[in-house]
Amino acid sequence: MEQSPSDAKLSSSSALFNQLGMQYEKSFGHNAGLHENLRRLLDLLPASSARVLDCGCGTGKPVSHMIANQGHRVCGIDASQTMVDLSRKQVPNGSFERANMLKYEAPTDGFHGVVASLALFLFEREEMTSMASKWFQWLQPGGLLLLVVVGAEDCATAPTPEMYDSDGECARGIPWKFMNHTLPVTLFTKQGWNKLLTEAGFELVHSETSLFVPPTEAGCDDELEYFVIARKRVTV
């Protein structure tokens, strides 16, 4: 049976991250902006035993590891079995499974928090829009989302005008250098993300940009990352 474009991308992503393994953590685990915003999220969660989903958990460090060390119940999903295995080893008190986040079914009692850190760079606009709705559905009322992305306007290779959709909120086919691979990616602008999250039912709590410079041997572009903490609005 022929794969859909989405499933083909998932297979390609899984193969890449299966190959990278711990090399990914060595290149990205020391991200100061991520550590700072994780601490900010943890300060906003219930004092203990919050249930948090690490969406695209990678090796389990730093995100799941920090969450579990604060006494919370962390669940992680990733498309790469190698990454899931590493997470289970490095965060033994967490729960991890291989899953396509677009098809993931959350537990009925939901989560107090969701983290999606640089987990969407192979997604198309329509898939990212779907994920915003899914995060909202997975969170308990008042639950918190920490999103880490790169805005289209902040990409190391600036998008040309024809790459942008007609509304100017998203650009497609941007060359992205990642772990010695150059990949065409689709990115929302920062304002595009703000609008998408608001329309999905979130209220923005905090946002900031922070420059992350990977080690030279990682073969990656520098990343001006956009951090957003958003709360699921409670409707009366």
Compose a concise summary of this entry.
The protein is of the alpha/beta class and 236 residues long. 33% of the residues lie in helices and 31% in strands.
How are the secondary structure elements laid out?
Layout (H helix, E strand, L loop, with lengths): L4 H16 L1 H7 L3 H13 L6 E5 L7 H7 L3 E6 L2 H10 L4 E4 L12 E7 L7 H14 E12 L19 E9 L2 E8 L1 H11 L1 E11 L10 E10 L4
Parallel strand pairs: 1-2, 1-4, 2-3, 4-5
Antiparallel strand pairs: 5-9, 6-7, 8-9
The mean pLDDT is: 89
Compute the CA-based radius of gyration: 17 Å
> What's the order of the H and E elements?
HHHEHEHEEHEEEHEE
Structural class: alpha/beta
Could you give a short account of the major beta sheet? 7 strands, mixed
Q: In total, how many beta strands? A: 9
Unreliable stretches: 1-8
Beta fraction: 25-35%
Can you describe what's shown?
There is one protein chain. This protein has 236 residues and is an alpha/beta fold. 33% of the residues lie in helices and 31% in strands. It is built from seven helices and nine strands; from the N terminus they run αααβαβαββαβββαββ. The protein has a seven-stranded mixed β-sheet with strand order 3-2-1-4-5-9-8, sandwiched between helices. Strand 1, helix 4 (63-69) and strand 2 (73-78) form a beta-alpha-beta unit.
